[in-house]
Every structure is written in structure tokens, then in C-alpha cells.
Amino acid sequence: MRNAVGAVDTVLLLGGRSEIGLAIAERLVRGGARTVVLAARGATGEREGGVKEQADRLRAAGARDVHPLDFDAADTGGHAAAVAAAAELAGDLDVVVDAFGVLGDQAAFEADPASAADAAAATFTGHVSADLAVAARLREQGHGTLVVVSSVAGVRVRRANLVYGAAKAGLDGLAQGLGDALHGTGARVMIVRPGYVPTKMSRHVPAAPFPATAEQVAAAVAEGLRTGRETVWVPSVLRYVFTGMRMLPRSMWRRLPR
């Protein structure tokens, strides 16, 4: 449950190594959260280094308890059990941050369609089972927020990153539907649509207009949680930019640079 002054107390991060996800978790810890579950593939294993670096970062920010939890985007059959395990570790889940996925490279995907399908599964299909399991848990609790890190890439899919954009479009639609499904239950969904964010995952992608840092995304999420927003654009100007983008005739859309 939220603590005595109404701040988030427990956080589950699905995608425990995500730079954006970690920035959000750290921001919530600095705002009062004390228990964080870091869910990632090999989170408890020594071979992959676990999530020790990430856990240390959150403890330094003020977290009391940081729990690693093994979570594989491709293991859709195990997602409900992973969410249940997170609740065993942390108790009621105040905020669940869904931040896992793969950006990849469009040219490489076109050369290897099977790898494109794998990336799309990690960026969309895995979220279906994970987010449905989270929604069921939050509905049972009667409170909590699922924060889904979507992308402006899914607002209108561009040829330059069509696999990633299509997967994010699916994720965004899923999140909207889940938000409607949870309406009136006490639980809710908040969709986050960042533009270009410079991270290790995006370092091979040319910078786009209106970039934002992971910390700016985190600040916008924290404010959105405080004010009860359903959708957060980062930076906020992208809401208006993409309103216009969606209205462009397809002939003009195709001329946009790769």
C-alpha cells in the first residue's frame, strides 16, 4: 500500500536493466518508495551478473529492500508466476513499471526476418501475458498503477523502424484497452510515450528532434502518478507534433527521411 503520506511504497520493474525503467524506479525511491523488485532475465544468476549494479544504485537512492527476480520476456507461461512472486517479495504492488523490449536495427531485421519476429515478441507479445497478469493482481488489490513505457514510434509507424514501431503500436493499444478494463476497480494504467531517449539501446540510432533524457522521462512519470494522468508524452510538445503527424497524407509520410 502507499505509505502514510500517500507516496508510492512498493515498485515492480519489469525490465530490471532498462535505463528508462531504472530512472523511473530511482525517482520513485527518492520520492519515498522503499521496496523495489527488479525483474529481469538472469536477475538472480551469477553468470549474467544479476542486477547487482542496478540494486546498488537504488539502495544508494534510499531503497530499503531491493529484490532480484528472474523474468524472461519470452517465457509467457511463467509471467503470472513472476508477478505472484513479486507480490510475495514486496506485498501489494503500488506501481508496476513495464519497461522491457528490444529496439534493434531495421536493416538487420529485413536481412533476418526471424530475428525481427523475436524482437517483436519481446517488445509486444511478452507484454500481453505480463500486463494481463499485472492487471489481475492490481484488480485483486483494488489499487495500484501499471506504467507502460510505450513510444511515439507506435503512434504512427515509420518505415525506418517499422518492426519496433509496429510492436510499440500493439503495446500502446494493449495498454489503452487494459486501462479501460481496469476503470472503476481502483487500479489503473498510465501510458508513457517518450520520443528519442539516448541510452545504450538507442546509441546506434540518429538523434531525433525533441529528445529527452531517461531522468526527464522519470520526472514526467512521477508527476503523472501524482496527478493521476492516463497518458504522458515526453517531452509534452510531442503530443502536438504527433497529432499533426497522424494527419499527414500517406504520400507525404513516405517522404520522411529514414
TrEMBL record:
The keyword Metal-binding does not apply. Signal peptide: none annotated. Its EC number is 1.1.1.333. Keywords: Oxidoreductase. GO terms for molecular function: oxidoreductase activity. Gene3D superfamilies: NAD(P)-binding Rossmann-like Domain (3.40.50.720). It comes from the Bacteria. The keyword Oxidoreductase applies. PANTHER family: 5-KETO-D-GLUCONATE 5-REDUCTASE, DECAPRENYLPHOSPHORYL-2-KETO-BETA-D-ERYTHRO-PENTOSE REDUCTASE. NCBIfam families: PRK07904.1. Belongs to the short-chain dehydrogenases/reductases (SDR) family. This is Decaprenylphospho-beta-D-erythro-pentofuranosid-2-ulose 2-reductase. It comes from Nocardiopsis endophytica.
